[in-house]
Amino acid sequence: MHTLTKAALLLLALSTAACTRPDRFGGAGADGTGMGGANGINSSSLDASDPTSPAYFAQTIGDRVLFAVDQSNLSPEAMATLSGQAQWMLNNPQYLAVIEGHADEQGTRDYNLALGARRANAVREYLISQGVPSNRLQTVSYGKERPLAICSDETCYSQNRRAVTVVSVGQLG
Amino acid sequence: MSAGTRISVIGHSALLTWLLLGWGLSNEPLDFQITEVSVVSGEEFEAIVRATTPNPATEATPAPEAPAIDQTPPAPEAVEAPPVTATPEAVETPTAEAPPPSPPDIPAEPAEVVDTAPSLPELSSPADPTLPTSSRPQPRPAPRVASTPAPPPPPDAQVADVPQDAVSPDATEPAEVVTEEQDSAAPEEAAPEIVTEAEQPAAAPTTSVRPRTRPATPPAQTAATEPDEAPAEDAPQSDDAAVDAAVAAALAAATTSAAPATAAGPPLTGAEESAFILAVKACWNVDPGAEWSRVTVVVGFELGRDGRVAGDVRMVNASGGDDASVNAAFQAARRAVLRCGASGFSLPADKYDSWREVELTFDPESMRLR
Amino acid sequence: MIKKLLAVVLALMVSGPVMAQNGPLRLTITDGVIEPLPFALPSFQPELAGSEQVAADISRVVAEDLIGTGLFRQIPPSAFISQHSVFGQPVAFADWRAVNAQALITGAVTVSGSQLVVKFRLYDIFTGVEMGDGLQLVGSTDGWRRMAHKVADTIYSRITGEGGYFDSRVVFVSETGPKDNRVKRLAIMDYDGANLQFLTEGNSLVLAPRFSPLGDRVLYTSFESGVPRINLLDVATVGRRQIETQAGEMAFSPRFSRDGQRVIYSLATGANTDIWMTDLGTNVHTRLTNAPSIETAPSLSPDGSQIVFESDRSGTPQLYIMSASGGEPRRISFGEGRYGTPVWSPRGDLVAFTKQNAGRFHIGVMRTDGSEERLLTASFLDEAPTWAPNGRVIMFFRETQGADGAPSLYSVDISGRNLRQVITPTFASDPSWGPLQP
Predict the structure, then answer these.
(1) Could you tell me the end-to-end alpha-carbon distance of chain C, in angstroms, rounded to an integer?
(2) CATH class of B283-369
(3) Phi and psi (nearest 5°) for B247?
(4) Are A110 and C223 within 8 A, CB to CB?
(5) C-alpha span between A14 and C408 (Å, rounded)
(6) Which residues of B touch C159 (CB under 8 A)?
(7) Which H or E element spans position B315?
(8) What is the number of structural domains in chain A?
(9) C16 touches chain B (CB under 8 A)
(10) Contacts of residue A117 in chain C, CB cutoff 8 Å?
(11) C437 Cβ partners below 8 Å, 6+ apart?
(12) SS3 string of chain C?
C-alpha cells in the first residue's frame, strides 16, 4: 500500500472517529476512552479496514439511524443497519455500546430529551431483539443539544433526528 | 437666446421649483391628515358637530376648541422654557378626541409658506374605485394604545401629551391669535389595540382605499333638529311675559311633571354625554396587565359651572379586587378626571343642574381583553 | 296678585332644579388609553461630598427600572420648569403639571465610608399629594444597585398596586462556542443583566436551571455522569449534590415545590418518560404519572395542589393539569399546534407556555382552564418562559435561525407589550426568574 493511500485512510479514519468520539459531547457516554481521547490514538481501533474496529463499525456498518419528525419507530433501512450493528456486537463481544438519541431543534428542550430517549430506546430494543445482551447496551438522550448539522432546514434536521451507536471497550457507567 | 426661450426657461424652472418644493413640503402634512381623517367614528363626529355648532341658547357654552381660541399666544417665559413638553395649561383641554386639525390652508410658519391647494382636491375626492381593496390593515405596535389610532407623528412634530393642532387659523379666529411660537405637536403614535409580536402582520398593506374626508365645516342646521334646544327660548322677556311664563310653568308642573320647569336643566343629550365620556377616557390610562384592570370603580365628584372639578374625586363603589388593586383602579380614575378636567369639561351651561354632580363608572373589562 | 305670582315663580326657581334632577349624572366609561405614565425624576441629591456619583447612578437605575416596564416614561430633565433641589422641600405641583408629569420622584443620597443612605419621596402630581410616606434605606455602598432596585420596586408598587420585581435575580445557561459544540455554564445575574457570576465550569453539559422559592438553591440538569441527571446547587457555596437516579434512568425538567422541600421532574426509563416527585428531606421518590406517553415539564400551582405538565398522550404535545398527588389529568390546551413548558404564574391564574405552530414558536399565556389563550411573541424559536416574581413579566429565550443561530434572553409584559432583550455578555438560554430578594 502506498504511503499516500495509507495517509488518506488514516485521515478518513480519524475524521470518522472524530464524529463518533463520545467525549466530544462534553464527557458523554460511558468510558469512551477506548476510542482514544484527544491525544491517545489507538492504532488498532483506527483501522477502518479491520472489521473488528469501532471505525469499521461506524463507517462500514453504519453507526446511526435516522427518524421521521416526532417519530421513534424504525424504518426498514434503519432495521437493516441495526441488524448489521447487532451482528457486529455479537462478533465482537468485548465491546459495549452507548446509544445516543438526538432530536432536531424544532421542539422544546424538555420534550426533545424525552423524544431522544425514545429513539435511543427503540434502537436498544431492536438490538436486543437481534440477540445482543441488554447488559451491553446503554442509552442516553441529548435531545436537541448536540446537532450534527447546524443549518435550520430539513436537510439538517433530517440528519439530526438520529440515534448513534457508540461502541467501546470497557465498563458501562 | 431669444427672449421667448429665456422666458420659457425661466418660467419652466420656476414651475419646476414650485412643483418640487410645493409637493415635497405639502406631502407630509397630507399623509398625516389622511390617517387622522380615516378614524372618525359616528360618536366622535357627533361630538365634533356639537362642539363646533353655535348653540343659539347659550353662546357661552364652550366648545372643545374654545380654549385654544381664547388662549393668548404663549407668554415670553414659555418661549424661554425648553419647548419639549412645556405647554401652557390652557392647551391641556382634552382635545384628543376633538376635531382633527383642519387642512392647513394657511401655513404655520411664515418661512415655510407653502400653498397646499393642489393637494386639497385629492383629499376630498372619493375613494378611487380602481384601487384594490386591501385586507383590513392590522395595527402595528405602538407605545400608546387608544381607541383612536394616531399615526406616527411627522418628523418635525414633538410628541405631546395633549395633541395640539398645527396652527391653523381659520376664518372664525381673530387674526391676532396666530401663535407662531407654538410647534405643531402630534399625539404620540397610538395603536387601537395592543399588538403583540405574535399578531403583527408580515408586511403592511401597500395600498388601501383612501378614506373620504370629513366635510370642512359641519352642517350648521344640526342644532335646530335637536329637541333639547327648545326650552332655550326664554331669553329677554318682559315682566308680564315672565309672569305668564311662570304661571304657565306652574300649571304645567302641577298637571304633568313632564314639562321641564323654566330654571330646570333638561338632561344631557346622548351626544353631550358621549362628548363628556370621550373627554374623560382620553385621560383614563389603563394598564391591561395589572390586577386592577379587573376592578370596576365608581367615582363621584362635583363640577363647578366652569366645568372644573370642585373639591376632590371620591370613590363611591368598587368591585373585583383586593384593597391595593381597588386603590390603584381608583387612583387611575381619579387621575383621568383631574387631568382631563384640569381646564374644565365642556358641558352645556344651561344644563348645569344635570351635570353638577357626576358619578362615573370606570369598567376596564374590555380593555383587559383586547 | 302679582306678589302671589312672584312667590310662585320664586318657589319654582328654588324647586325647579330639584325636580329636574334625578341624582347625579351617571355615565360608564369602558374605554381608555394605554400609555406609559410620565414621571419626573430630578437626579437624587447628594447630601454629602463624595456622594455625587452614587446619587447619579442610583437615579439612573431607578429610572431605568421604571422605564423598562413599559408602563412609565421619563420626562427629560431639560424640560423641567422647576428644579427640586432640596429633598423634602414643598413641591411646586403646578410646575410639574405644566410639563405633564403625573408622578414626581425625589430623593437624596448620602455616602459615608461604606455606608449608603438613600431617601426618597413619591408625589402624585394631579392630585397634589404624596403617595405613601417617604422612605429611607440604609445599606452598604457596594449594594447600591439593589438599593436602587428597592426604591424602584416601592415606587412601582405604590403606583400600580402590585408587588415589584426589580430587586430579583435570574439564573440561566450561558452559552459559548459553535452551534454543534456549545459550552454551557450556569450563570446568575440581576434581573437587568448586572452582576453576572458563573456557577459552573463549562466541562459538562448543563440545562434548564430552576430557582428555589427562596432563591438560595438551584436545580438543574447535568450530563456530568454521562446521562442527564438532576443536581441541586447551593447558590452561596456553589456546593452541589445529585438527586438519586437508578442506572439506565435519565432525569430532567426539575422544579421546586413551593416550600422548596420537594422536587418534581421527568424520569425517562426505557422509551417512557413520566413525572416523579422526590422529597429532598426523606429522599422518597413518588411516581405521579404512569402512561406510555411522554410526560414532562411539570410545574406546581402556587398553592401546591396541582401540577401542570406537557404530555403527548393525544398524539402531539399538549398541556394537562392534574392533582399534585397524581391522578387523572385534564387537558387544557386545545388550539392548533404543539404546546410545551407550561409554567404556573405566581398569581395562580395563568399558565405561560411555549407553543409551536406553522413553523413558528410563540410564548403565550392562558387561564388555567385553557381559556383566553394569548400569544405574546413569535419567532423562529422562542422557548422556556419564566415568571417575574410579581407575575407581571415573562422572560424567555429566543434562538436565531441558521448555522450561526444562537440564543438570547428576552422579556415581555403579559399584555404582550414591551418586548425587549436582556443583554448578556454571552449567548444565553433557559432563564429562571428568582424571587424578590428580602
Answers:
(1) 83
(2) alpha beta
(3) -65, -45
(4) no
(5) 35
(6) 328, 331
(7) strand B309-319
(8) 1
(9) yes
(10) 250, 268, 270-271, 273
(11) C146, C167, C168, C169, C215
(12) CHHHHHHHHHHHHHHHHHHHCCCCEEEEECCCEECCEEEECCCCEECCCCCHHHHHHHHHHHHHHHHHCCCEEECCHHHCCCCCCCCCCCCCHHHHHHCCCCEEEEEEEEEECCEEEEEEEEEECCCCEECCCCEEEEEEHHHHHHHHHHHHHHHHHHHHCCCCCCCEEEEEEEEECCHHHCEEEEEEEECCCCCCEECCCCCCCEEEEEECCCCCEEEEEECCCCCCEEEEEECCCCCEEECCCCCCEEEEEEEECCCCCEEEEEEEECCEEEEEEEECCCCCEEECCCCCCEEEEEEECCCCCEEEEEECCCCCCEEEEEECCEEEEEECCCCCCEEEEEEECCCCCEEEEEEEECCEEEEEEEECCCCCCEECCCECCEEEEEECCCCCEEEEEEECCCCCCCEEEEEEECCCCCCEEECCCCEEEEEEEEEECC
- CATH numbers and ranges of domains, chain C: 37-160 (3.40.50.10070), 168-436 (2.120.10.30)
Q: For residue C107, what are the contacts with CB-CB under 8 A and spacing of at least 6?
A: C44, C45, C55, C58, C59, C62, C87, C118, C119, C120, C121, C151
Cβ–Cβ under 8 Å, residues C178 and C172: no
Q: Which three cell numbers stand for residue C245?
A: 437516579
What percentage of residues in chain B have a pLDDT greater than 90?
Answer: 22
pLDDT value of position B43: 53
Q: So what's the pLDDT on residue B188?
A: 62
**Chain-wide mean pLDDT for chain B?**
60
Which structural domain range is residue A40 located in?
Answer: 3-169
Q: Is the dihedral of CA C7, C9, C10, C15 positive or negative?
A: positive
Q: Is the pLDDT of residue C426 over 90?
A: yes
Do the chains contact at A113 and C228, CB–CB below 8 Å?
A: yes
Q: A74 — contact with chain C (CB < 8 Å)? A: no
The CATH number linked to A124 is 3.30.1330.60
Distance in angstroms (rounded) separating the CA atoms of residues B253 and B273? 26
Report the pLDDT averaged over residues C360-376.
96
Task: Indicate the average pLDDT of chain A.
Answer: 81
- Report the C-alpha gap between C337 and A76 in whole angstroms: 29
Kindly determine whether residue B147 and residue C31, on different chains, have CB atoms separated by under 8 Å.
yes
Cell of A66: 435516522
Do residue A30 and residue C226 have CB atoms under 8 angstroms apart? yes
Q: Please give the residue of chain C at the shortest CA–CA distance from B260.
A: C20
Give the domain ranges of chain B.
3-199, 232-264, 283-369
Per-residue model confidence (pLDDT) at position B191: 74
Name the residue facing A109 among C203, C317, C383 (closest C-beta).
C383
Burial (CB < 10 A; 0-12, 13-18, 19+), residue A9, is middle
pLDDT band at residue B343 using 50, 70 and 90 as cut-offs: confident
Stretch among A45-59, B100-114, C184-198 having the lowest mean pLDDT: B100-114
Q: Check B84 against C24: CB less than 8 A apart.
A: no
Long-range (24+ apart) CB contacts under 8 A made by A3-12 are A9/A47, A9/A48, A9/A49, A10/A46, A12/A48, A12/A59
Nearest Cβ partner for C24 among B200, B273, B357: B357
- Packing angle between helix C2-20 and helix B239-255, nearest 10 degrees? 50
pLDDT tier, A19 (very low <50, low <70, confident <90, very high otherwise) = very low
Each residue's pLDDT tens digit, A45-58: 567 788 999 999 99
Give residue B267's pLDDT.
87
